[in-house]
Amino acid sequence: MTSATSALKPKVLRLGRIDYGLSKWAEIAKYATVLDCESKTREEFFNDLKGKYKDITNISRTYQSVHQTGRFDAELATHLPTTVKSISHTGAGYDQIDPDPFTKLGIQISNITVPVEGPTADTAVYLLLGTLRNFQEGHNLTIQGEWKKGKKAAGAKLGATPHSKVVGILGMGGIGRQIRDRLVPFQFKDIIYYNRKRLTPELEQSSKYVSFEELIKQSDILVISVPLNPKTRHLISKEVLADLKPGSIIINTARGAVIDEAALLESLKSGHLGGFGSDVFEFEPQVPQELLDLPNVVSLPHMGTHAWDAIEYMEEWVAENVESYIFTGKVKSIIPDQYDMVIDPKPLLKRE
Is 79 considered catalytic here? Predict the structure, then answer.
């Protein structure tokens, strides 16, 4: 059991809607005051942080809550009460948060790890197979009535099978490894990867570590699985696209801005890039119609974790990050940017 007087209760501010993780949040509400943010604009949020939210201890936020508060950046950090100890984000990608100003304040930031890995990897496999085999084009042509005209496969271009292709995975974190594990049974010619650090043999398994340059040169299918940050924005540039094999395919389930979208469109139109499958776009939900209309593009509207049980797992994980800080002084899954952060754990409550 846990006991806490009203005056000593931690105060958790939730930004964004909770749909499926309500039972876990109900547990937290037994020992903490849980407030749902009512601020409608960034300016109102700043004012509320001086008023009704002046003594909050922990914050949880969703991807959509950016419309309420704007980015969690240096400006926002200056408005946070000194009582804030942690920020827990509902997603693997935390590009809406600038870690540095919060790290300087000693505020721990957590993201989602395990819950997003499987669903995102499933999405990557769907996009990869759909693009490789031209399934989307076949579907679209069938809807247009082309199959009824007697055209073989409704007129869709011939695709290719996995055994003749080298898959290159850019970013071999939890999601990248889940993508690899799902691709192994398809018997691709080879699976190579580039990561900031080479994996241990236990994690590397049958995949092969190469340099970034070799990854680009050798890959028939380039799968992007890196977070978006200043170093990875437009990492796949016009120059990198030119270095890819003619006819190669790119699959992206990370963040749209990792790719220079304008350069991508030109590469697809020129025929140098053979196909593109993506769940994310640089300026989503605004996506160039010209890009979407290309027959060799398979697109999804950011559906990587668009499943009720995946969302439930994510929302529970965020709640567990909040709970972990309250009782241990440390979040459950701190972001990589803070791995070297010096932490002096100071629990807000003790379990009895």
Answer: no
CATH class of 6-91+308-338: alpha beta
Please state the rounded mean pLDDT for residues 273-299.
96
CB 203 within 8 A of CB 177: yes
Residue-range domain boundaries for the chain: 6-91+308-338, 117-299
**Rounded distance, CA 209 to CA 161, Å?**
23
User: What is the amino acid identity at position 65?
Assistant: S
CATH 3.40.50.720 for the 117-299 domain, yes or no: yes
Catalytic, 198? Answer no
Q: Which two tokens stand for residue 162?
A: 């996995």
Mean pLDDT estimate for the chain: 94
Q: Note if the pTM is more than 0.70.
A: yes
Q: Catalytic pick from 137, 255, 282, 320?
A: 255
**E runs forming strands in 76-227:** 86-90, 108-110, 166-170, 190-194, 208-209, 221-224
Q: Are 89 and 97 in contact (CB under 8 A)?
A: yes
- Could you give the count of Cα atoms lying within 13 Å of 164 in the half-sphere of its Cβ? 6
Tokens describing residue 289: 């119609």
The candidate with the shortest Cα–Cα distance to 264, out of 238, 284, 243, is: 238
Q: What is the mean pLDDT of residues 283-290?
A: 95
**272 catalytically annotated:** no
63/195 Cα distance (integer angstroms): 26
**pLDDT 10s digits, 129-156:** 999 999 999 999 999 999 999 999 999 9
Q: What is the pLDDT of residues 159-180, one digit of tens each?
A: 999 999 999 999 999 999 999 9
**Do the beta carbons of residue 120 and residue 305 sit within 8 Å?**
yes
